[in-house]
Amino acid sequence: MLTAQLADAKQAGQVLAMTPLAERNALLESMEHLLVTYQDQVLAANARDVDEAQARDLDPPRIARLKLTPEKLAGLRESLAALRQAPDPLGAGRRWQTARGLILQETRVPLGVIAIIYESRPGVTVEATGLAIKSGNAILLRGGREAHNSNEALASLWHQALKDVGWPSALVTLLHDPDRSLAQELMHLKGLDLLIPRGGAGLIQRVVSEATVPVIETGVGNCHLYVDEAADWEMALNILQDGKISSPAVCNALETVLIHRAVKDGWVPQAHERLSPYGVVWHGDAEVMALVPDAVEATEADWQEEYLGLHLAARVVDSLDDALDHIARYGSHHSEAIVTNSYSAGQRFLAQVDAAVVYWNASTRFSDGFQFGYGGEMGISTQKLHARGPMGPEALTTVKTIAYGSGHTRDM
Amino acid sequence: MLTAQLADAKQAGQVLAMTPLAERNALLESMEHLLVTYQDQVLAANARDVDEAQARDLDPPRIARLKLTPEKLAGLRESLAALRQAPDPLGAGRRWQTARGLILQETRVPLGVIAIIYESRPGVTVEATGLAIKSGNAILLRGGREAHNSNEALASLWHQALKDVGWPSALVTLLHDPDRSLAQELMHLKGLDLLIPRGGAGLIQRVVSEATVPVIETGVGNCHLYVDEAADWEMALNILQDGKISSPAVCNALETVLIHRAVKDGWVPQAHERLSPYGVVWHGDAEVMALVPDAVEATEADWQEEYLGLHLAARVVDSLDDALDHIARYGSHHSEAIVTNSYSAGQRFLAQVDAAVVYWNASTRFSDGFQFGYGGEMGISTQKLHARGPMGPEALTTVKTIAYGSGHTRDM
Fold first, then answer.
1. Which phi and psi angles does A338 have, rounded to 5°?
2. Any idea where the domains of chain A sit in the sequence?
3. Does B194 contact chain A (CB < 8 Å)?
4. Which of B221, B251, B239 is nearest to B327 (CA)?
5. Which of A111, A358, A386 sits opposite B400 (nearest CB)?
6. B152 Cβ under 8 Å from any chain A Cβ
7. Which SS3 state, helix, strand or coil, does residue A361 take?
8. For residue A260, what are the contacts with CB-CB under 8 A and spacing of at least 6?
9. In A, which residues are within 8 Å of B410 by CB distance?
């Protein structure tokens, strides 16, 4: 059933792949204007979704994610503006001549057609499509049922913007999928170049394990902060607070702090005091329990857990090696941080920790496509192949090698 | 059962990941010397495999792939020498400062542990391991049963070379797998960073569809040559001959030629004459049949077929657009070529054909890691994610982003 939509999208994508950056950026800018002009219509459509969701007793966090506000729309416009200012992910790369004189030119090209399966956030309809357009791809959007009216309103603005510049509407296809059959179909849609699940761990795992089309896994961040014996205590407190408090529900938030035994007696009580106004629950080993009066005892599950909330696992370690072992065992290869003024400890941590991003004296919360200057992100890849870490527009491209010959043959 | 081997390989890989290029190259050079010193032992082990294979009545092409000769061993030494001369795939990449002043440093690092499942060619034991070492990875080798003695002999040379430089032997692990249970286990070995199937289409498809670990698909090459109306006829004949004759059993060989109607009457008979000494069987459409006396009629299956032998599918097209449509429909996204002196036709072909490598006035047979100057290849990726086209040492690496802060926090 989606075969026809995919074919239309492929064809439309070929048009987009040829356009210069300025035209792709003009489309993004046009969308920014439409988001202002039609703000009331978008908010009205969203209000219908929110009303229905409340009538169906959806849980409050999900309704919070569903709800659009003038501020959230302004944020989406800022994302599009940042994306416009980001460099072109398409175009010429390395060029070289082979031993036989053939000229090879690497060229970044769009993947073709990407699809995204997402949940209640309607903002994804703007952000993911912006990234697709910037990188020359057509996109199939399969949003959550509960956001259907909001997504329709936003997709219709994209279609208006496409019409304004004279590009095919098949570049952006919103799929209405009340019975989830289309999500199923997307996972097995031969010819689809990439499928990205964006949402909770359940959705991501279902897609990764079932899909037969190419998928990039995003998401789980069990991020650690290691406070070394040579740490600046105040810096470690700030980085702990930023990592745990500033946005606890996101994947780059801190979940576990590892403290060198040499500093535990002084630093742990200060850390506890720093976090206590926010109601953080400490899950500590025996030594942490002795220093944090209201800590609960950490179990094996705590070391593995991505709390996504105001909980913190805490453990005392004997050495940098112990910290490295703990992270190797429990980390999710997302973002890991050390605070230390020791050159050798810092360098060893950077070299030995196997993660997408490793931080020396900085907060894991910087693992983000905007912070990295990519102009946005499709998510944060925790896999090693293709894209690792924040996925900006370049993660939605591939390489084509162009060979310029003058009758070159290999074995004649 | 492989969990312990994987853990040992991971640990050994961490040692290798830290070594400078000169030491990795020294190991490759040591292996080159050992291949000379122990040539007789390797050939003797191989002779036992060949004897057993003959006793078991294996088919002759498989025995040919199994058999080592002094010339083949010299070729393997040359591969290692080429790999030594190739640039370091590891090390520093882009470095930039974010808007907030955080310094980000992209670094190419090894994937960790890669595994390869291969069939009768014992040379893979040298080539694949060389690529793994060059790129800082540990490797698990699961070769074919029939090559077991040869693989043992070659792996023991690697272990000797590792011992000489003082590196752990767990960097190279040869798996003996007479009942194929280990191949099965590799496909689901949690923590394995990459599995590459190398061999026939059956093996590759089985691994791609069944594996739950990261896999890169290599292989199928249904490569086309389009002879444009503005082609240089002699050049097109040379490129046809090179593509079809020089090594018909490989994936970058030509399978189909598309001829513009304006040149068919003159060019097709010349092409037929050029290929006739080699016994090429033409599978033509009606117009080709009229020009090639001994052609057989092409069926739909011929357009899809990767012959890997002395067969050639041939079709007359009305235009460049028709040729592009044919390639879009039947191509395997591997390597495609146009011969033309028309600037506009050449540029359109390069831009619109969706393949790993597109050739303008050159043979598809250049799609090869040695020809590209990579110092070797793990195969030719026909997927768009991670690696596309010939996979040299860099395809066995990933990126880690290192963040240097001085107490940077995001939201405080």
1. -120, 145
2. 3-216+391-404, 223-366
3. yes
4. B221
5. A358
6. no
7. strand
8. A226, A227, A228, A229, A231, A316, A317, A318, A319, A320, A323
9. 242, 246, 363, 365-366, 371
Buried b (16+ CB within 10 A) or exposed e, A226-247: bbbbbbbeebbbbbbbbbbbbb
Nearest to A18 among B99, B351, B405 (CB): B351
Angle between helices B39-55 and B148-165 (to 10 degrees): 160
Contact (CB<8Å) B411/A247: yes
- Which residues are CB-contacts of A223 (< 8 A; sequence separation ≥ 6)? A243, A251, A252, A253, A254, A255, A256, A331, A332, A334, A335, A336, A337, A364
Chain A, 218-247: which have a CB under 8 Å from a chain B CB? 232, 235, 238-239, 241-242, 246-247
Average pLDDT, chain B: 95
Mean pLDDT of A223-248: 97
Q: What is the ipTM of this complex?
A: 0.92
Task: State whether B405 and A359 contact (CB < 8 Å).
Answer: yes
How confident is the model over B293-338, as pLDDT tens digits? 999 999 999 999 999 899 999 999 999 999 999 999 999 999 999 9
Place of tokens 């527009």: A393
**A366-379 tens-digit pLDDT:** 999 999 999 889 99
Assigned fold of A223-366: Aldehyde Dehydrogenase; Chain A, domain 2 (3.40.309)
Q: What CATH number belongs to A3-216+391-404? A: 3.40.605.10
Instruction: List the single residue in B with minimal CA-CA distance to A237.
Output: B407
Q: What is the pLDDT of residue B61?
A: 84
